[in-house]
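Deviation from plan, reported transparently: adenosine-5'-diphosphate complex.
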Amino acid sequence: MKTKQKPERFIDEEGKRVDGRRPDEIRPIHIESGVLNRADGSCYIELGDNKIMTAVYGPREVHPRHLAEPDRAIVRYKYNMASFSVSERKRPGPGRRDREISKVSKEALESAIFLEKYPNSVIDVFVEIIESAAGTRATSLTAASVACADAGIPMRDLIASCASGKVDDTIVLDVNEVEDNYGQADLPIAIMPKTEEITLLQMDGNLTRNEFEKAIKLAKKGCHQLYEKQKQALKNKYGGN
Ligand code: ADP
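Because the crystal trials were delayed, the predicted structure below was used instead.
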């Protein structure tokens, strides 16, 4: 979507959204793992117009040392938007939003990693948003978990993350930028797909209880679609079908 204006309607008479998707459709997904040579693990992801690179270093020794935990690894998660990634230049450096996203994403990812296997060490996760088109926190997390797997870090499962939302009183999967900016609600979740355990849940806007349940169900459906692509990206690098 190039227009940043609020559309008159979000859903047309054929039931299609401003970018031509049906309410229950996710944007096109492209995932590649192991794309950086220097990092221990990496993943590049596109979801619609979102373009995101993630790199994982570690487990490795913690600096500064006082941050080390004697019984487990710590995770540092750094979400960064390139200044050219949004329509108006983003001021470089972490703002409140970047810090919040880094915090909730770190916690979401930690749930999947067997941290106790690596006492006194750190897993550093770097996220660079190259082009941003709504849903970046969820999409980054999806990529970051593939990068962790690519680094050989033992995990309970991958983390798949996707948002649903509400526009024109309709629950839709994977809100785009216009829907995010002018819609009625945005609900990003992250799950471990094997058990559907939720490791991140945030919400902007208002939903009734019924709408909330429908939105969670739809976001989970998106997560399972991402999960298939995540596994395929790892298989493409390491072989197997
Ligand atoms: P998410 O990217 O996880 O959906 P938000 O809901 O906070 O996070 O943001 C929605 C979208 O708004 C972003 O993906 C991005 O396209 C746009 N956006 C966020 N921050 C900025 C900014 N500082 N300048 C311009 N656009 C922004």
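The beta strands are 29-33, 41-47, 50-61, 74-81, 121-131, 160-167, 170-173, 185-192, 197-201, 204-205. We consider this an acceptable substitute for the interim report.
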